[in-house]
Design goal:
globular; 2 domains; single chain; eleven-stranded mixed beta sheet; Aminopeptidase; 390 residues; five-stranded antiparallel beta sheet; alpha+beta
Length: 390
């Protein structure tokens, strides 16, 4: 296993766990804007057994050190033997390589496990030349692929600025792949009714009807944050989370212990929307509170009440964002139904390095065609947004 690569003033090394990196160094590089980039979030995933070797996520984070051994940059990285929990789908690539006798797995995957939130992936000390440090980390990742003879490296949901930095050169080793999510933007609304007034009359009536049906069913809501969150709330939420997965025939990515970790270390950055019926908790949605965004993550319910999902995940989050002047809500991957509730399509980015030139060329052709289709789809969906037009 390669251990270190030296380039100019930097030495890049791989580490076997987030816990092997001092929290102060990690958080200095990650900053405070996105709670899901912090040291506590990654250690929660790994130490809970959610993202670990046994689940196909082998931590191998790359750290960038100066000549004195001080950490100035981090690229979260996992070696993977599957493509689950990433939300940028490459199963077809794996199948294509397999059909010609190649092995797609293991591969190198940089991102936040089970968390499709766009943002920084190259965590660099603010005092550095950020572009230089990002290139050094990216070069180290390419070296990992070569020395371990992996098929590929993938950096998912990185920022647009990072994507451009890696792909703008003619001889770039990276292919850019676009995706699409739906985000809600706060136009300085004064309250939820002010938001509704920005919508067409038909859409406004639909949302009011949906909210009324949930209220008429007797559902009430608690918005829990910080010390208002108690261990029993996570017992309830995990029950909802598993029930939601059972309905979809899915497996649980997150272990129960993950929620104990984030309760211990991140509860000030968590908003848990808890729905109750006749005094009993029946549904919930977890959100993470960033500097300029509310990140909607998981939800679940043990009852079937029409529109409960929309109220718990979207309308309660919108009301909270308006009240707390949060600029936007990012509610995760997929979900065309979000558009009719005020969320609009935005592009997302991932970059991919394929070690074998022929495979690289084939994937490039695929991405070129896919990008055209996604651009057309995004333009079409933009016409379906519920906002009034001048």
């Amino acid at each position: 296993m390669p251990h270190a690569w030296t380039a100019a003033a930097w030495t890049a090394e791989m580490t076997p766990a987030a816990s092997a990196i001092p929290a102060a160094d990690w958080n200095r590089c990650a900053g405070a804007a996105d709670p899901m980039l912090c040291h506590a979030f990654f250690t929660a995933l790994e130490e809970s057994g959610s993202a670990c070797a046994d689940t196909g996520w082998l931590p191998r984070h790359i750290i960038l050190k100066d000549a004195a051994g001080k950490i100035h940059g981090i690229l979260p990285l996992y070696l993977k033997n599957h493509s689950y929990g990433e939300y940028v789908f490459d199963h077809a690539w794996a199948g294509a390589l397999g059909r010609v006798g190649g092995a797609y797995y293991p591969k190198a995957q940089s991102g936040i496990p089970f968390t499709p939130t766009p943002g920084r992936r190259f965590l660099t000390d603010a005092r550095l030349n950020a572009d230089e440090a990002r290139h050094a980390l990216a070069d180290a990742l390419v070296a990992v692929v070569s020395q371990l003879e992996l098929s590929s490296a993938h950096i998912t949901f990185l920022s647009g600025a990072e994507c451009r930095l890696l792909t703008e050169a003619e001889d770039s080793k990276w292919l850019v792949r676009e995706g699409m999510q739906f985000h809600w933007h706060n136009r300085d609304y004064t309250d939820f009714d002010d938001f509704l007034d920005a919508l067409t009359a038909r859409k406004r009536k639909t949302i009011r009807r949906e909210r009324r049906q949930v209220a008429d069913a007797g559902v009430e809501f608690q918005l829990l944050q910080g010390d208002d969150l108690k261990p029993q709330h996570w017992d309830d939420f995990y029950r909802f989370y598993l029930a939601n997965l059972a309905d979809k025939w899915g497996g649980a990515y997150l272990e129960r212990a993950f929620f104990d970790h984030i309760h211990q270390n991140l509860r000030e950055k968590i908003l848990l929307v808890l729905a109750t019926l006749d005094g009993a908790a029946v549904a919930g949605a977890i959100n993470f509170i960033g500097a300029d965004a509310l990140y909607g993550r998981n939800w679940g319910s043990v009852v079937h009440i029409p529109f409960l999902h929309f109220e718990t995940c979207y309308y309660q989050a919108i009301a909270y964002a308006i009240a707390h002047k949060i600029p936007r809500i990012e509610a995760g991957a997929q979900g065309l139904h979000k558009v009719q509730r005020g969320y609009v399509p935005v592009p997302t980015y991932s970059v991919h390095h394929l070690r074998e030139p022929a495979f690289h060329s084939a994937v490039k052709d695929f991405i070129t065609h896919e990008t055209e289709l996604i651009a057309q789809e995004r333009a079409q969906i933009q016409q379906w947004t519920p906002y009034k037009t001048d």
